[in-house]
Amino acid sequence: MTTALTARPRVSALDRDTAMRLAATEYDRVVALLEGLAPHDWAKPTDCPAWDVRAVAAHLLGMAEMSASMRESMRQVKAAQARGGVFIDELTDLQVTERAGMAPAGIVARYAEVAPKAVKARRRMPWFVRRQKMPAAQVVNAREETWTLGFLSDVIMTRDPWMHRTDLARATGAPLVLTAEHDGVLVDDVVREWHERLGRPVTLRLTGPAGGTWGEGGPELEFDAVEFCRALSGRGTAPLDTEVPF
């Protein structure tokens, strides 16, 4: 059961330039990881149920194509809605299914081609569109909430490939490139949202290149920065029960 949330629609806490810098860098890092995979890596299982490496890459490509073109975005949305199930599940399954015939090399090449277009289209989204509410409520921590299109474009559409990049690295053993300038900023945004959703004092220390220290008072918690984020997304083993959407 979900409980309706009457708060204002969620907006991005990142300024636009930072959000687009993170988007461009994350797309580039996904391209680099995909280009480095060996042929036998593509069939390896991932932490995403029912998805192997190839399926995760197909989903990433579908999302990038959705971001790059309003026409493609509307097409995917309508096709997913027509399926009648939970929208996000139907959307991601549609993306994987429609690209089932693509060879790994084709997925990589197409992703590298469309990623800059996705950044450009996201950057060009007008302010009045970014302020609009998404048509459907989102369920986070068993509560319904509304998001603006700006929050989806500036935040979620970058967190999604970032999290799946960690999935691919874990599945294949590929290097997971992490820097304070990129991943540290992304993690900082996640932590600040987590503190807001948690609603009580906590001192959090995250280790690794993307880590840092946040908050004061309350219990002291320490985790690896990536594993902390994976736990908030429903992955991993860290004992955290407050979700943050990715």
How would you describe what is shown here?
- By secondary structure, the chain is mainly alpha-helical.
- The protein has nine helices and six strands, in the order βααααααββααβββα.
- It has helices at 16-35, 53-68, 70-83, 87-98, 104-123, 127-130, 149-172, 180-198, 225-232; strands at 3-4, 138-140, 143-145, 203-207, 212-214, 220-224.
- The strands form two sheets. It has a three-stranded mixed beta sheet with strand order 1-3-2, with no helix packed on it. A three-stranded mixed beta sheet has the order 5-4-6.
- The protein is globular, with a radius of gyration of 18 Å.
- GO terms for molecular function: isomerase activity.
- It comes from Lentzea sokolovensis.
- InterPro entries: DinB/YfiT-like, Maleyloyr_isom, MDMPI_metal-binding.
Considering the chains and any ligands shown, give keywords for the structure:
246 residues; mainly alpha
Outline the fold blueprint:
Layout: E1 3-4, H1 16-35, H2 53-68, H3 70-83, H4 87-98, H5 104-123, H6 127-130, E2 138-140, E3 143-145, H7 149-172, H8 180-198, E4 203-207, E5 212-214, E6 220-224, H9 225-232
Parallel strand pairs: 1-3, 4-6
Antiparallel strand pairs: 2-3, 4-5
Helix pairs in contact: 1-5, 1-7, 1-8, 2-3, 2-4, 2-5, 2-7, 3-4, 8-9
Organism: Lentzea sokolovensis
Keywords: Isomerase
GO molecular function: isomerase activity
Question: Summarize this, please?
Answer:
GO terms for molecular function: isomerase activity. With 246 residues, the chain is mostly helical. 56% of the residues lie in helices and 9% in strands.
